Fold this protein.
Amino acid sequence: MSRRQDTENPSSEEPLLAPTPDMIVRIAQGLLISGRGMAVFAPDDSIRLATEGFRTLYDMQPGAQTFDSLMRHCWQTGRGPRIDTQDIDAWLTAAHLKRRSQPVREFEVDMIDGRWLWISEATLPDGWLILSVADITSVKRREFRLATDRDAAITAAETDHLTGLYNRGATMKRFQKLVERASGTHETFCAVLIDLDHFKSINDRFGHDAGDQVLVHFATSASAGLRGRDILGRVGGEEFLILMPGADMAQACAIVERLQAHVWDQRISLNGVALRYTFSAGVAQWRHSETMDQLYREADQALFAAKDAGRNLIGRAG
């Protein structure tokens, strides 16, 4: 009984057969008819064997070919692998520094037709190189979809759905990072807290949909009037925060003054009525060792002072 079990279930410790010449030939025959892309390069980089799959992928032409001639053909015809260079000779020089640099080398290749390949190069001690190709297009597409979905999720989580600006959480996260960076570099920056004047009366008179139009209008106007490096977010109902890296108090106030004039010069139509609106601002300049909460509180106090003084003004902290 035990002998029959041993026969039907050979021991896992039984040694594998050593490859014989005949077995190696059978393996080679199987690879050749599998359709897999494979090529054998001699030590001088001439191509001594190429499967039909390899020939198709690299648009290999009849006659003797080398690695260089094959890559030149692909570059000149825009077929096969994507070779983004204006100088094919320099590209080939760089490629030769990598080829045969280690016994086994694996890397991705982006193809002109949109496919992605996984290339494996095995270099034998005598300089012969065996190259095999695997199509990983489906894997790359899945990775791209996952990355796209992840980025979309992050964007959705950080975006104010009405204005398209950063929401409070995303704005404060960038605020904290700016403080941390400035703590190390001593780079100056300003925080500007903005509140739209008499916004409640706009909602009461024209309705909340009209109030939403004003918020969107301000977000669009402010985004267009700020510097490329400035960060703008909506941190409350009609409250916005602008972070201005590299700006001191005078520069920040000058930018806000231009923005106030720009907003006032425009009219927004609400239920057939042309409306102008204003905003008040509080500006605080970061000082070394200040925390984010301290700086935000200073900007908030400066904003309160501007509103208390009559609105459509800029309060300066300190």
